[in-house]
Amino acid sequence: MLTQQQLLGLLTDLEADYVERTTSTTKTDKFAEAICAFANDLPKHGHAGYLIVGATDGGSLSGLTVTDELLKNLAAIRSDGNVQPLPAMTVQKVVLDGGELAVVEVQPSDLPPVRYKGRVYIRTGPRRGVANEQEERILSERRVSLARSFDALPCRESTLDDMALGQFDAYRREAIAPDTIDANHRSVDEQLASLRLYDLDKRCLTHAGILLFGKNPRFFLPGAYIQYLRLPATDLTDLPDDQAEISGDLTSVVREMESRLKLLIQTKLRPVSGMQESLVPDYPEWALRELLMNAVMHRNYDSNSPIRCYAFSDHIEIMSPGGLYGEATPENFPTRNSYRNPVIAEAMKSLGFVNRFGYGVQRAQRLLADNGNPPARFDFDANSVLVRVYLRPE
After folding, report:
1. Are residues 37 and 77 in contact, defined by beta-carbon separation less than 8 angstroms?
2. Are residues 99 and 205 in the same domain?
C-alpha cells in the first residue's frame, strides 16, 4: 500500500488518471465501477489504481471518520461476485491531519476485460465509463500476453466448431448486461474472446471455453470428468452398488452430480427436543453441493486425474486434483483463498452454481453443524485436496 507521503502526493495530483476521489460512503455501484476500471487499466499504466474515499475532487479531506463497516463494505466488493474476474485489491484506513481516508488499491488484471454487472468499465483521462467495442477488443488482445491461469490459456488443437454455441448464447445472456448485448455488432469469436473463452491471436478456444461449452471436453483434457462410486460399506475394494464416469460440459456434469448427491441423502424421523421429532436428513444437501462446487471450481484441469466422489456407508469423500493454490495454506484454509481457475469461477457465478466467492467451505461447515453432522475433514498434499463428510449420528 501507499506510504502517507505518497498518498498526500496523489491527493494533490489532480492530473493522475489512476486516482479517483470521492466523499460518498454509500455509493457501492460507483466504488465497484471505479475498481473495475482500475483493474482493466486501459491506459496500460502497469501499476495500481487508487480509489480514495473521504477526499474531494480538489484533493482536500472531507473530515470523514472511517468505520469498520465502510472498510468491510469496500472489501466485500471483491468477493460478492459482481466484479468478474475477481480483482486483486487491498483496503486500508489512513489517518491524516484533518480527517481519515479509506484507500482501495487495485492491481491491473491479468485477465481483462473485467466486468461489473456485465459491463466493462474503463478510465481514459478523467473519464470513467463503459468501454466501447474497440476498447473491449484492445483489452481482450492484451490478455494474450498476460494470461497466467491454465483456464485462460489457448487450447491450440481446438476450433470454434468444438463449441456448442447455443449453450454459449444462453450463458452470454447471464454474464453480460442486456443493453451491451443489444448494442453488440461483434463477431462470435470476438464475443467469446471478451469473456475469455476464445483466443483471437491463436484462433482457438481457451481451456475454459472447452470446459464450459465444449462438445467433448475430454478429447482435449482427459481428466475433465468426475469418477463416481457408491459403495455398500466402508471398504473401497467392495463391489460398488453404482459407478459412473460423469463427463461433458461443466454445466451437464454439475447437474448430474447434483442429482446423484440428492439420491444419497436419506431423511429419517429423529428427536429434536424433548418429546418432539422431526424429519432430518443424514447429510445436508447444500453442504455436499458447496463442497462439490469447490472441487469443480478449484481443481487442476491440467491434470489427467478426475475429481473423485466416493460414497461409503458412513461418509462421502470428494477428492480434487491439485493441492492448495496461491495464498491458501493448510494453516489459513478456508479463510484465505486464491483462484486457480478465475474464468471458470466467473462462469460458475454467472450460471448460479456459486452465490459468493470465498465462503463455500465455511458455509458447508455451518450447514453440517446445524444438521448435527461432524465437521468435514480436509487432507492436503501437493497433488490433491480430499474432504470427508461424515454421516449424521443416530
Report:
1. no
2. no
275-295: b (≥16 Cβ within 10 Å) or e: eeeeeebbbbeebbbbbbbbb
- pTM: predicted TM-score of the whole model, two decimal places: 0.77
Task: Check whether residue 205 and residue 284 sit in a common domain.
Answer: no
d(CA 144, CA 147): 6
DSSP string, 275-334: TEEEEEESS-HHHHHHHHHHHHHHS-TTSSPPEEEEE-SSEEEEEEES---TT--TTTTT
Number of structural domains in the chain: 3
Distance CA 244, CA 106 (A): 44
Beta-bridge mates of residue 388: 317, 377
Range of the domain at 99: 4-128
32 shares its domain with 111: yes
3-state secondary structure of 42: coil
Q: Is residue 44 left, alpha or beta, with left meaning phi > 0 and alpha meaning psi from -120 to 50?
A: left
| Structural domain includes residue 260 | yes
Lowest mean pLDDT among 17-31, 100-114, 159-173, 268-282: 268-282
178 confidence band (pLDDT: 50, 70, 90): confident
Q: What are phi and psi of 78, to 5 degrees?
A: -65, -40
Residue-wise pLDDT tens digits, 271-321: 777 677 788 899 999 999 999 999 999 999 999 999 999 999 999 999 999
Q: Is the pLDDT of residue 343 over 80?
A: yes
Query: Is 15 part of a structural domain of the chain?
Result: yes
Q: The C-alpha cell of 256 is what?
A: 448430474
Q: How many CB atoms lie within 10 A of CB 152?
A: 24
CA atoms within 13 A on the CB side of 279: 3
* 235 and 187 in a common domain: no
Residue 139 within a domain: no
